[in-house]
Amino acid sequence: MRSAGWLSLPAGLYCLAFFAVPLALLLFESVSGPQGLTGAYYADFFGSAFAWGVLFRTLWLALTTTLFCLLIAYPAAFALTWTRGWVQSLLVGLLLLPLSLSVIVKAFGWTVLLRGNGLINVTLQALHLTDAPLRLLFTPAGLLIGIVNIFLPFMVLPIFASVGQLDGRLTDAAATLGGRPFYVFRRVIVPLTWPGVLAGMTLVFSLSIAAYVIPTLLMGDAFQTLPTTVATSFLYLQDPHRGAVAGVVLLVLAVLAVLASSALGRRTELS
Amino acid sequence: MSGTAHLRIDGVSKRFRGTTVLDGIALDVAQGEFLSLLGPSGCGKTTLLRILAGLLPPDAGRVVLGGADVTRVAPHRRNVGVVFQNYALFPHLTVAENVAFGLRARGRPADGIPARVSELLSMVQLGHLAGRSSAQLSGGQQQRVAIARALATGPDLLLLDEPLSALDRKLRETMQVELRRLLRQLHVTAIFVTHDQEEALALSDRIAVMHAGRIEQLATPRAIYDRPATPFVMNFVGQATVLHGMMVGGATLRTAYGEVEVEGTLPPGQAAMLAIRPERIAAGMPVEPGRAGVTLPLSARTFLGSRCLLHGTLAGEDRVTVELPASAAEAVGDDVLLTWNVSDGILFPVAQ
């Protein structure tokens, strides 16, 4: 299909000029020392306890965010599917509306809500659930509350789409074949909604592994992840090599996540 | 026969948003019987099927299966197999896994499952497709897998919801024969939902003709066709010549086309409707004792191969349909004396 090839030319050129070339420069930066090519920057990076802490925090944040988003979004997608008419339109609208808002605005919003005299603490104290303000801002709990909220639509929407395609007769058939409700859930509902779950997990994992604004605003500079390390290396420490190494590591993790997701998707297609 | 019924449906009713879908359905089905629920869409037959499967609770009435009241028993605790209208095969499973689903769900010993699955697949002649994804099958193959899957656990009752309606005519006829043979062989009690009267007549031991949430008639196919209990059954099953008129004397109906002799016990002055099945009518023969006759206009023909249908346009709700051997139909002109055995006439009173 020659014509199809030509049609992708503008997109291909754009990606080459503004994505592939900068990435190549980044990669080059991470291995070019004063005497030519070197692996010294990688050795330095992986040799420091600080870097392992960064890696651990980055993966912890991405995995926990993905897990909590999944736990909240999976039942929510069913609830959304079972509503009808204007109620459903309203709920989908409420889900989509925050996407039109900048992530900086949303993260700042959460700092206001989470702080000592913020709405959450005021409410908790008014209900006499707590005596003193809880420390939420600049804690992992506060970070998770904020980041899960901000990335939740990216988990709900793909799962909602796959739940919508679920044929009710299949669960009826499974029940008449003797499947207890949990058996039907495990053997029919989960496998058939798996593509949506996988898409949602890939999206949220990729977004949260690369999150910069949210951890910075909700946790501050003490909580360094790969994206914040890239930024501080380039902006404050003037250490482009370390920044480049962190950037490449982040890229490798993201690519691995996408590859794992598509491998999992293929495996379910075959089985 | 209260003690012998394998399945007893006792006064089952169901309403949806103020509409009565099932109105006091009562029905006994014997072990090994093949019963059809026949009716137009919206008559409640699929609702009744879902109630029998446990997928829908009735508002009133009881379902007794094998002596046990299962009215409130969840579908997975009943042993009722269902073949759904569009088969509802699990698209993420292979043919063999679909058939094994019920065995696994019911916790049958794992080492016996492969043998049982291959036994069922060879029974529906699909042994060679065991490893195929169910999404890759043709309609007829999907149908067989659905039947094998429903039969795998040896159900007490098999429910079939228009399982043949998605197949083309030729395949449908083959599958009818095969299904009948299979169910006879296994001696499975089966309830077959259909709107196709030919299918019901061909397959069933008995037919329950349903209309507006009630059973209009429950009888053998032969009795349903020959002696329909109501005008609805007569119209829904098969074709007929229909003449309206008024009873004059005990055994004569005055129609717009003349007086005809009828069998029946309607009083004089009663409005009535006479129906005669098309193949019971002879054309161009004299009226003999024991036979009734009337001259009717025939204006159209439908050639069916060995047989030929002759139709005419009559006034009001009257209509004429005659089925003759194709050779005899050639000789028939426009206005023809049609005769039939008086005992073949089916007489219904009509509200005035």
* Proportion of residues in extended strands of chain A: under 5%
Assembly state: heterodimer
- The number of distinct structural domains of chain A comes to 2
Can you tell me the overall shape of chain B? Answer: elongated
| Strand segment count of chain A | 2
Description:
The complex is a heterodimer of chains A (271) and B (352). Chain A is an all-alpha fold and 271 residues long. Chain A contains 13 helices and 2 strands; from the N terminus they run H-H-E-E-H-H-H-H-H-H-H-H-H-H-H. The radius of gyration of chain A is 23 Å and the shape is globular. Chain B contains 9 helices and 21 strands.
Q: How would you concisely characterize the structure shown here?
A:
In chain A, 79% of the residues lie in helices and 1% in strands. Chain A has 271 residues and is an all-alpha fold.
Task: List key phrases describing it.
heterodimer, A: mainly alpha, MetI-like fold, 1% strand, B: alpha+beta, Rossmann fold, 2 domains, 6-stranded mixed beta sheet, 21 strands
Write the layout of secondary structure elements.
The complex is a heterodimer of chains A (271) and B (352).
Chain A: H1 2-7, H2 9-31, E1 32-33, E2 36-37, H3 40-47, H4 49-82, H5 85-96, H6 103-114, H7 119-126, H8 140-164, H9 168-176, H10 181-209, H11 213-219, H12 226-235, H13 240-270
Antiparallel strand pairs in A: 1-2
Chain B: E1 5-16, E2 19-30, E3 34-38, H1 45-53, E4 60-65, E5 68-69, E6 80-83, H2 95-105, H3 113-123, H4 139-151, E7 157-161, H5 169-186, E8 190-194, H6 197-203, E9 206-211, E10 214-219, H7 221-226, H8 231-236, E11 241-247, E12 252-255, E13 258-261, E14 271-276, E15 282-283, E16 291-297, E17 300-303, E18 307-313, E19 319-325, H9 326-330, E20 335-341, E21 346-349
Parallel strand pairs in B: 3-8, 3-9, 6-7, 7-8
Antiparallel strand pairs in B: 1-2, 1-4, 4-5, 9-10, 11-12, 11-14, 12-13, 14-21, 15-20, 16-20, 17-18, 18-19
Helix pairs in contact in B: 2-3, 2-4, 3-4
